[in-house]
User: Which sequence fits this backbone?
């Protein structure tokens, strides 16, 4: 159900009241975005929860649970999020026109969380997934509500086309989950600049939509919808990384403006069970 513009504004305002940090960064993730027909109505997106534990379901929450990841992002004036229950599958198989969110013990592969987006026309997101790795979240370092919500909020934010406000883990927190930090306690929600960036990213109409498609565009190679892109060896080439190596972006290019882009949040190699 659509929220009114007034309700959205109030919800967003409630989240950012009291934030003292100045936000002036420009942080889109490239030009990636879900295509929409009309710039005057929200992007309607289905988010499928395949989460298997209460801790992760609590972090993701819903549009009506104040302070949850779904509530925070749904407060944006350009997003209309609808949570559904998925199949709780480890592979987190993507589906056209929606975001799949999954957790599992994906192994000692180095990553805490990943966000993957399937692109057509060089910029349009057609489907997306967020995965969080319980191999690390079951260790003392990351087995906290704050770490779960921080990583979940950030990876889902990438699935909308947002980048990071700051990639220095040692800077003061910006009160945004799109800010890297070694202490996520105050970086658990989007801040006003995240909402402003979404408005800028979605300030145009594309004349068609990818957010409610029932299948991938016919011009996309079939392999893009069939491969399970779980490991770095399947993610293509590295096209970006933070200075300390804790985040990286991979791109697997299928040609013709079709690609799969993977954002990776690496675990701290100095902490438990890291390699």
Assistant:
């Amino acid at each position: 159900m659509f929220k009114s513009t007034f309700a959205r504004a109030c919800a967003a305002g409630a989240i950012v009241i009291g934030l003292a940090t100045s936000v002036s960064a420009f942080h889109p993730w490239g030009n990636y975005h879900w295509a929409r027909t009309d710039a005057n109505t929200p992007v309607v997106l289905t988010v499928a929860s395949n989460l298997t534990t209460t801790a992760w379901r609590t972090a993701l929450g819903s549009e009506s649970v104040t302070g949850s990841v779904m509530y925070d992002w749904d407060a944006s004036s350009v997003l209309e999020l609808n949570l559904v229950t998925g199949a709780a599958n480890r592979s987190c198989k993507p589906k056209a026109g929606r975001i799949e969110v999954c957790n599992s013990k994906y192994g000692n592969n180095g990553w805490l969380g990943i966000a993957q987006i399937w692109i057509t026309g060089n910029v349009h997101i057609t489907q997306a997934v967020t995965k969080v790795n319980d191999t690390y979240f079951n260790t003392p370092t990351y087995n906290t509500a704050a770490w779960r919500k921080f990583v979940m909020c950030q990876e889902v934010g990438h699935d909308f086309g947002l980048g990071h406000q700051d990639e220095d883990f040692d800077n003061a927190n910006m009160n945004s989950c799109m800010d890297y930090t070694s202490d996520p306690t105050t970086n658990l929600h989007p801040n006003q600049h995240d909402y402003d960036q979404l408005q800028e990213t979605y300030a145009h109409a594309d004349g068609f939509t990818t957010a409610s498609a029932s299948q991938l565009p016919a011009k996309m190679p079939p392999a893009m919808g069939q491969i399970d892109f779980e490991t770095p060896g399947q993610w293509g080439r590295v096209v970006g990384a933070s200075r300390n190596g804790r985040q990286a972006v991979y791109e697997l290019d299928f040609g013709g403006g079709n690609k799969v882009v993977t954002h990776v949040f690496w675990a701290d190699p100095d902490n438990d069970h890291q390699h």
Summary: Residues 57 and 130 are 13 Å apart (CA to CA). DSSP finds six helices and nine strands in the chain. The longest helix spans residues 145-159.
